[in-house]
Amino acid sequence: MEQKSPKKILLISNRVMHYRSRIYNKFFDLFAKLGYEFHVASNDYQKVDFPIRYIKHERAFSTSGYIKIIKEINPDVCINFLHLKDKIIIPLTFYCRFKGIPMIYWNHGINIKTPDAKLKNSIFHFIHTISNAIILYSPAQLKYLSKKNQKKTYIAKNTLDFSDVNKSTLRSPKEVKAAYGIKEKRVLLYISRILPYKGLDILLNNFKGNEDIALVIVGGGINEQQQATIDSTPNYYYLGEKYGSEVDEIYQMGDVFSTPGHIGLALNQAMYWGKPVVVLNRIHAPEIVYLKNGENGFIANTEEELKTKILNLCTNENALAKASQAARKTYEDEMQIGNMFQGFVDAIHFVGK
Q1: How far apart are CA 130 and CA 120, in angstroms?
Q2: Which of 80, 143, 152, 326 could, after both became Cys, cross-link 296 (CB 3.0–4.6 A)?
Q3: What's the mean pLDDT in 259-273?
């Protein structure tokens, strides 16, 4: 009996960050179980320290170049994960419409950093309308869509996949602390790109001289003034950019996590490792829906309150243990990759594939 060929799904993406490759590997496995072949086309892939299982296509952005990829793959469904600045977004959507290939738009709905930009929003709304279906990060973003387009919209709450993390191969927190020369009892983690709105300076200004609390910073983009503050403060440590097992070890040795001004998927990774999260009450990425104030972390209204909440967790064994358990439970109950994947399956079924 002739074996039936799998249907093909093509995700057209902007830069594929290392954590996305983990997600796409898992999607490849999950789609295969449903009889689909999962392809990803991008102009840029961040380096990873694990094998890529999804079918990878790399090419500089151009409408003709990506139309050629579509012709070569002949996908049953395309998923568009692009920004407006990726100018291929509209012509590729029209091309797929012309060829009868359903195009699914996956993103925030609009640029949530500029929610009142009328011209940009009108272009986003046009893209929503010409797409066959829409996938959003959370129900909170439905407000950015017209009532008509909400009817073809599915939710895939953003998360990360940690199924390939082998904890048995990681060094113990004690070993990691020794390797980086960290002497303090507790570790406050900042792991993210270092951008002004992320709020690293808030932590640098508030935790000097805490002999029992190490502020450990991981991420690219540190400036000279921040580096000078770290160099002159005994309980501050900057470890540079880390990925893969190295960053897993750092998460594992931490006690509390904070990127005060803005948090995204780092919240998911912190909760996978059972680390309570403390941030300020500001505009955050959609992943903030997982943060339950007073349970698995805190959303503070002022910098002083932020400091107080972090200090309380770091000095109160019972409070830290309770919040840590709640963080891990949130990951187990709400952040599984299968929950995110189901939103994609629902959208694909909606377009009839």
Answers
A1: 16
A2: 326
A3: 97
**What is the C-alpha separation between 23 and 20, in angstroms, rounded?**
5
> Across all residues in the chain, what is the average pLDDT?
95
> CA-to-CA distance for 325 and 274, rounded, in angstroms?
6
**Three-class SS of 325-351:** HHHHHHHHHHCCHHHHHHHHHHHHHHC
Tokens of 125: 């709304």
Q: Quote the CA–CA distance of 303 and 108 in Å, as a whole number.
A: 28
* DSSP character at residue 86: S
Q: Which of 58, 4, 68 has the alpha carbon at shortest distance from 36? A: 4
Q: Is 60 exposed, middle or buried (0-12, 13-18, 19+ CB in 10 A)?
A: exposed
pLDDT value of position 353: 73
Per-residue model confidence as pLDDT tens digits over 83-113: 999 999 999 999 999 999 999 999 999 988 8
Q: What pLDDT digit, counting tens, does each position of 127-165 carry?
A: 999 999 999 999 989 999 999 999 999 999 999 999 889
User: How far apart (Å, rounded) are the C-alpha atoms in residues 95 and 89?
Assistant: 10
CA distances from 81 to 10, 106, 285, 289, 338 (A): 11, 5, 16, 21, 19
Rounded to 10 degrees, the C-alpha dihedral 177/179/180/185 comes to: 20
Q: Which of 107, 60, 43, 45 is nearest to 81 (CA)?
A: 107
3-state SS, residue 19: helix
Phi-psi map region of 35: left, alpha, beta (phi>0 left; psi -120 to 50 alpha):
left
Give residue-wise pLDDT tens across range 30-65: 999 999 999 999 999 999 988 999 999 999 999 999
H or E, element range at 321? helix 317-334
CB 21 within 8 A of CB 51: no
State the pLDDT at residue 1. Answer: 47
Query: What does residue 311 show for φ and ψ, rounded to 5 degrees?
Result: -60, -40
- pTM over the 0.90 mark: no
Rounded CA gap, 125 and 286, in Å? 19
| Cα gap 320→296, rounded to integer Å | 9
